[in-house]
Design a protein that fits this description.
The chain is α+β, with helices and mostly antiparallel strands and 143 residues long. The chain folds into two domains: 47 residues; 94 residues, K homology (KH) domain (GMP Synthetase, Chain A, domain 3, 2-Layer Sandwich). The protein contains two helices and six strands; from the N terminus they run E-E-E-H-E-E-H-E. The strands form two sheets. A three-stranded antiparallel β-sheet has the order 1-2-3, with no helix packed on it. Strands 4-5-6 form a three-stranded mixed β-sheet, covered by helices on one side. Helix 1 packs across helix 2. The longest helix is centred in the middle third of the chain and has 23 residues. The protein is globular.
């Protein structure tokens, strides 16, 4: 059992100017190049904070499923997730990460009923999904 709290560390270095990309790095992994997206008047020549947010949500779900499937001995061949982030204004007229839609395709599942029960369970167990206010919509396809 892990000992809590668990810390994760990151480092970001940037210079001024909307058109200057910057780099970020976490825990000794190779740096990522980030840029302001074109939708927000940047060049869009790198991942944006919005991309990282969507990737965090998508991959937290993927990791939680991968872990839960292993622990429950639920075999599958492959999972693919196409995800979409919608940025919009909330009721207080603040720009927010409004909605994420996860289109989840699961190939070669050995027990669809068990898979559906497991998926319903883990939707409430994803660490990052439990930490955000963004609406998450799950669409499953079994192939």
């Amino acid at each position: 059992m892990p000992q809590y709290p668990i810390e994760f560390k990151a480092n970001t270095a940037l210079t001024s100017g909307i058109n200057n990309p910057w780099s970020t790095q976490s825990q000794g992994f190779p740096p990522l190049s980030l840029d302001i997206p074109q939708a927000f008047e940047g060049k869009g020549n790198g991942l944006s904070p919005e991309d990282l947010y969507l990737l965090a949500i998508t991959n937290c779900f993927a990791a939680t499923f991968k872990y839960a499937a292993e622990k429950s001995k639920l075999a599958f061949d492959k999972m693919e997730i196409d995800s979409t982030l919608e940025v919009n204004f909330n009721t207080e007229k603040k720009l927010v990460m409004d909605k994420v839609i996860l289109q989840i395709s699961i190939f070669g599942i050995n027990d669809r009923g068990r898979a559906e029960r497991l998926l319903a369970k883990i939707e409430g167990q994803c660490l990052i999904l439990n930490s955000v206010q963004t609406q998450i919509i799950f669409n499953y396809l079994f192939l």
